[in-house]
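Q: Sequence in, structure out?
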Amino acid sequence: MHIGFLMKWPKGMEGLRGHVIGEEPYAESLCRELRQLAGIQSAQVYAPNVKPTAKLDVMIHLNNTIPGPFAYKHILYFQNFYNEGSDIILAQLQKLGYDGYAFPSQRLLDLHRQAGYSGILLPFAADTRIFHPKDTSPTYEYDVAYVGNDIKGEERTMRYLYPATNYKFGLFGNWNLQPYSYSRMFAKLSQGHLTHEELVTLYSSAKIILNFTGQDSVIWDAMNLRFFEVLACRGFLISDKIPSAERDLKDFVIFTDGYQDLTQKIEYYLTRPQERKEIAESGYQYVIQNATVQARAKQLYQFIEEIM
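A: Exactly. Output:
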């Protein structure tokens, strides 16, 4: 079987102008694990600048790309968030004729099934060959750190990032995307792109890693990839509140309402290194046992076999 993953962005864009793009490296990890499974001859990531040279058995769409003649079967992996609302975008994409659907959100999968479609729950997971504990580095021993682009709006950014500016704060990603005053402030702080090796060292070294999601992800209860990658590095994570994360990760992640609550939790945990260490160790064990990309690749292949 020949499998492809299709992005709407050009391959190799991550790192240019400070961008942090999750789809390409995550899809490459899935491809690597799929190629280890019996019955799969090839698995590769495609994009506008890298197109298939022969017809594939199945193409997995990572964004809102349109099914075409380059594959016999098409699966939509609905794993982005949309400011317009994921429910609205999903209703549009359902009309395009995909043969299967996968979601990291149970709530979206339930909505999808109510509309008469089928699909599977395929949450994100960590590639533990890449994301694993490393020796700490003085370069990345920040009190608080965050890696991401300026795509979540002023209210959520100020709520979940601004309190960190009162500490030794490591900010990375593209913060030159918006023409707003808050964006300019964070753009001055941002140190741009990190390689995967640098990212793993950051997650292993910083005292506290922050996570926050787009409002659409909160509404549809979709955990992002950062949860699992930070925990896989024995990182200590403070995140905004996602219902499924609060349920599944309550013993491994600290949750916050932002602003003063976040400041209080940063203050509390900065002075309790042993408590941070114990929580981070529990999170690491959870990922190793429950949320690896190897396990997700097997789930995906089983679903592919069902629709072929």
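The two ends are 10 Å apart (CA to CA).
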